[in-house]
């Protein structure tokens, strides 16, 4: 199982993403933003960070990266893809997922351990969770408020494509407490929280609830 | 407009130079003339004026700081000591850590966001220039009173600046301090610490050896940041042209700095760097003179080649610009192509601007004419040294006589506990720290509100040796203690940081410091400074932890009102097996709660005296370095044996606050009895060399034996569990009540 981990010049969580994948038994394959090469990976992880500095709208430049011209069609063809934080923002900017992430309602960057409810346990990245299960993952972002027009929201809700919802207090003012969503096919998942920071007892957030993402994709790839 | 050349300086020996406007004294200017044998050119004056400034030359502090060297304890861990960009310490298994704390106080008052952001940027580049990967930052912050209006301007800006810059760099922020006191209202303190890791055989130094080697300036382009002084020079030297007022505060670009970090690490991996220096205060002036002075001794630079963001900059301005995110490297001619290719991969502009020579002169040209021709060491190392006069402040004796003994002590200790827990300095810092990313890079084991930050040493660089080690870091300082007794105050800052490292299970190894004081021209301030340095140097010797570097910030005063003397001390420690770290506070129910160390009736400079009576007088708690060392030995030994489940140091607010915070850590209550006869003293005295630990009942005897062996007092207080903190016969409060008191204060002010 080879899972690509994308690095833009300002990507920050790629080391964590690679470690989380390795701990789950996958091989983490570095993918460089300026290359036109997906190296034949079986899935892709777009980690968080500030891709090209994000002085413009987060992810707005990244969507034009050379690697994205390979990633977008691959995702549309069914390649499993997980975007966390800036990765989620990039997936939205690239229109692989609907809606957008805007400045937190509180106008401050927020880093905290957040309770999250799993609302869809059938995507490529969530089968090892149970629907309705509450997990704790860190959030750490300044622009994580999910917004979309009423029609899109209704569509997401009706089709069960809201994968994660903030439980307890909403850290950023996201509509419908949305923390993460998936595309129609269920292969592309984006969320603001960071599963890769919750995979070891010693480090990161309390608990290891993030492991479920990586065990889910490994199981899927093994069975594929 | 013509440029002032060396040739022209020879022809116009009597031209008045604006040295006074640049902050240079007549006798200092006369020395420059004597060194050069002629008047300096405008560019040369720019170099000398910044290099001989207090900030760069340490001219008022040098004679005192020497004690950090002469009194330094013998340390096998010290690999690089003071005088380089940052000290380097051997942490075992072939790994080294480099760390330093530095002030960015004045810019942060003028423009809080950019001032604080560039403070982070500057210290991170110091760490990079040692050859290390920066792995974490911390911030030690002081603001005016929480109820003072300007605090609401300065604090949010500073926090946002640190948050934006540090988060974009991908460096976890793992701790620090936030302190409020009206004495800082016009002079907030922003002290930023960075720690980096490197292989101990790959240390880089700021040196330019090897004639023929090339000098490369890389990173951001040079703009008009931070050159107020240079425009004085330009407009006073050259008639007619009116210069626009340049912004004096630098503006940061964290994305460029992130690129620089990755670019530098790849340059080090490729082994194409002979010497390297970051550009901080005094920019190109500082980097060229210091590199040349520490290398073969000479360098030529063509200033026209410096890439500019603002093409109208004059050479004097280029020399003084403090534009951020720039580095200077010395590279052999054969490695130039490889060097430039790596820079290009990371989109980092890089330009060869000069060459190392063996002439002993730093020669710079502009439009083909020589505008600087100086012996670089005279600017970098031979600045003026002052023996400033000092004496004890006039009111010091009376201040020490005004003890807290006569203050009315409370009978309702529950109210006192909740009041202290909600006070400006003891309330939850979460409003601040939740704006910092503490998880990035995935090696954070402990972060705020733990006593110290703790990092796993792992996956720092590709191909690096596996290790189980971790490093712990804490910063502390108490301006009220230092005001009462600066000698003891500095030692108390060290004691607390040392203790904070030890409660995690790590062994303290080395020290960095940021010495924040008023004007050195005031003999009373200078006395505070001299006493603080003497105290710190003596204490470092006793505790066996050398000072590896640091920074002095003078002139933190408005009019004649100086801040409380505020020596901030950072301590770095190492733990052999990071998995054996001790958690912060009470992690579970059913554990024995134990107080280590002795408690005395000590309230001088205490939080209680401050909060309940707005009183500052008497003497701070007694320093007991031997007791600190023994306590640290107990803590590290107990951690190594796996005896401890949780710990917390006792400091501001005493045992009462430590118990409450330990309960709040995981929401676990405790029931305890106090050991002494006076519940108020037991709960709120700030005696030093104490810590709270909790452990499984079956380990209690082993711990008491260990304590007995080292003569550390040890009291079983009670047990963890329940949802309240119960101090039997004294007070009871639910964890929820504690939390509500603790967490409402900062959000109540800052929203």
Describe this structure in words.
The complex is a heterodimer of chains A (224) and B (751). The mean pLDDT of chain A is 95. Chain A has helices at 14-23, 66-76, 86-93, 150-158, 211-223, and strands spanning 2-7, 27-32, 43-46, 81-84, 100-102, 110-118, 134-141, 145-147, 162-166, 178-182, 188-191. In chain A, strands 2-1-3-4-11-10-9-6-7 form a 9-stranded mixed beta sheet, sandwiched between helices. In chain A, strands 5-8 form a two-stranded antiparallel sheet. Chain A has one domain: Class I glutamine amidotransferase (GATase) domain (Rossmann fold). Chain A contains 5 helices and 11 strands; from the N terminus they run βαββαβαββββαβββα. Chain A is an alpha/beta fold and 224 residues long. By secondary structure, chain B is of the alpha+beta class. Chain B has a domain at 583-751: PurM-like C-terminal domain (Phosphoribosyl-aminoimidazole Synthetase, Chain A, domain 2). Chain B is built from 27 helices and 29 strands. In chain B, the strands form 5 sheets. In chain B, strands 22-24-26-23-27-25-28-29 form an 8-stranded mixed beta sheet, with helices on both faces. Chain B has a 7-stranded mixed beta sheet with strand order 8-10-7-11-9-12-13. In chain B, a hairpin with a 2-residue loop joins strand 19 and strand 20. Chain B starts with 5 loop residues before the first helix and ends with a helix. Residues 230-246 of chain B have low confidence and may be disordered.
């Amino acid at each position: 199982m080879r899972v690509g981990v994308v690095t833009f010049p300002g990507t920050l969580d790629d080391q964590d993403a690679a470690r989380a994948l390795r701990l789950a038994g996958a091989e983490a394959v570095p993918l460089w933003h300026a290359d036109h090469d997906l190296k034949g990976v079986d899935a892709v992880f777009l980690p968080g960070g500030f891709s090209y500095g994000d002085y413009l709208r987060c992810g707005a430049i990244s969507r034009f990266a050379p690697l994205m011209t390979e990633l977008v069609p691959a995702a549309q063809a069914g390649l499993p893809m997980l975007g966390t934080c800036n990765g989620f923002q990039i997936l939205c900017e690239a229109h692989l997922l609907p809606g957008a992430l805007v400045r937190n309602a509180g106008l401050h960057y927020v880093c905290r351990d957040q309770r999250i409810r799993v609302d869809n346990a059938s995507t490529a990245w969530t089968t090892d969770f149970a629907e309705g299960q509450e997990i704790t993952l860190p959030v750490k972002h300044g622009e994580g408020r999910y917004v979309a027009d009423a029609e899109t929201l209704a569509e997401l809700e009706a089709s069960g494509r809201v994968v994660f919802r903030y439980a307890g207090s909403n850290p950023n003012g996201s509509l419908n407490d949305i923390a993460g969503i998936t595309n129609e096919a269920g292969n592309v998942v984006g969320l603001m929280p960071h599963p890769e920071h919750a995979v070891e007892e010693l480090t990161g957030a309390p608990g290891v609830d993030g492991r479920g993402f990586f065990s889910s994709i490994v199981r899927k790839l093994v069975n594929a | 407009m013509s440029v002032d050349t060396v040739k022209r300086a020879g022809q116009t020996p009597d031209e008045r130079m604006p040295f006074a406007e640049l902050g240079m004294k007549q006798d200092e200017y006369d020395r420059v003339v004597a060194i050069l044998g002629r008047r300096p050119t405008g560019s040369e004056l720019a170099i000398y004026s910044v290099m001989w400034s207090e900030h760069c030359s340490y001219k008022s502090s040098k004679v005192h700081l020497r004690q950090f060297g002469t009194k330094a304890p013998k340390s096998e861990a010290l690999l690089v000591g003071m005088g380089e960009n940052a000290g380097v310490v051997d942490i075992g298994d072939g790994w080294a850590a480099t760390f330093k704390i530095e002030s960015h106080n004045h810019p942060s008052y003028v423009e809080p966001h950019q001032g604080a952001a560039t403070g982070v940027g500057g210290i991170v580049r110091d760490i990079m220039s040692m050859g290390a990967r920066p792995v974490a930052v911390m911030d030690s912050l002081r603001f005016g009173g929480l109820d003072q209006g300007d605090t609401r301007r300065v604090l949010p800006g500073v926090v946002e600046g640190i948050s934006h810059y540090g988060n974009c760099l991908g460096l976890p922020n793992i701790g620090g301090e936030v302190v409020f006191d009206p004495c800082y209202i016009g002079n907030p303190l922003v002290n930023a610490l960075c720690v980096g890791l490197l292989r101990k055989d790959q240390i880089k130094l700021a040196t330019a050896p090897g004639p023929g080697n090339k000098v490369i300036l890389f990173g951001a382009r040079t703009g008009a940041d931070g050159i107020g002084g240079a425009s004085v020079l330009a407009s006073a030297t050259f008639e007619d042209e009116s210069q626009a007022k340049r912004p004096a505060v630098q503006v940061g670009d964290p994305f460029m700095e992130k690129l620089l970090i990755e670019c530098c690490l790849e340059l080090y991996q490729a082994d194409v760097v002979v010497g390297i220096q970051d550009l901080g205060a005094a920019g190109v002036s500082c980097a060229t003179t210091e590199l040349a002075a520490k290398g073969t001794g000479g360098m030529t630079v063509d200033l026209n080649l410096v890439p500019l963001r603002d093409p109208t900059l004059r050479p004097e301005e280029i020399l003084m610009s403090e534009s951020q995110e720039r580095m200077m490297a010395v590279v052999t001619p054969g490695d130039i192509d490889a060097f430039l290719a790596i820079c290009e991969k990371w989109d980092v502009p890089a330009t060869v601007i000069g060459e190392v020579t063996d002439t002993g002169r730093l020669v710079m040209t502009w439009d083909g004419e020589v505008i600087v021709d100086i012996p670089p060491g005279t600017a970098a190392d031979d600045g003026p040294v002052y023996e400033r006069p000092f004496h004890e402040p006039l009111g010091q004796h009376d201040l020490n006589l005004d003890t807290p003994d006569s203050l009315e002590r409370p009978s309702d200790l529950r109210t006192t506990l909740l009041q202290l827990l909600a006070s400006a300095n003891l309330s939850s810092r979460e409003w601040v720290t939740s704006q910092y990313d503490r998880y990035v890079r995935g090696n954070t084991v402990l972060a705020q509100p733990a006593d110290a930050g703790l990092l796993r040493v792992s996956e720092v660089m590709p191909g690096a040796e596996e290790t189980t080690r971790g490093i712990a870091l804490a910063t502390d300082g108490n301006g009220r203690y230092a005001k009462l007794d600066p000698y003891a105050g500095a030692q108390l800052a060290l004691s607390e940081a040392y203790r904070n490292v030890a409660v995690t299970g790590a062994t303290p190894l080395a020290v960095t410091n940021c010495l924040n004081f008023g004007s050195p021209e005031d003999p009373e301030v200078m006395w505070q400074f001299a006493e603080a340095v003497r105290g710190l140097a003596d204490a470092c010797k006793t505790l066996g932890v050398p000072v590896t570097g640091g920074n002095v910030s003078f002139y933190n005063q408005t009019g004649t009102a100086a801040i409380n003397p505020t020596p901030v001390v950072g301590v770095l420690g190492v733990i052999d097996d990071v998995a054996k770290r001790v958690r912060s506070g009470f992690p579970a129910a059913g554990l024995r709660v134990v107080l280590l160390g002795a408690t005395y009736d000590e309230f001088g400079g205490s939080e209680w005296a401050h909060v309940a009576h707005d009183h500052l007088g008497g003497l701070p708690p007694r320093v007991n370095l031997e007791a600190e060392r023994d306590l640290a030995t107990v803590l590290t030994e107990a951690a190594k044996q796996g005896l401890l489940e949780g710990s917390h140091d006792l400091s501001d607010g005493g045992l009462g606050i430590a118990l409450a915070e330990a309960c709040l850590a995981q929401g676990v209550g405790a029931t305890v009895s106090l050991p002494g006869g006076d519940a108020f003293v037991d709960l709120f005295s700030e005696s030093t060399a104490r810590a709270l630990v909790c452990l499984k009942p079956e380990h209690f005897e082993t711990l008491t034996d260990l304590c007995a062996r080292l003569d550390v007092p040890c009291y079983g207080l009670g047990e963890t569990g329940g949802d309240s903190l119960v101090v039997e016969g004294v007070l009871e409060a639910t964890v929820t009540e504690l939390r509500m008191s603790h967490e409402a204060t900062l959000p109540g002010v800052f929203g």
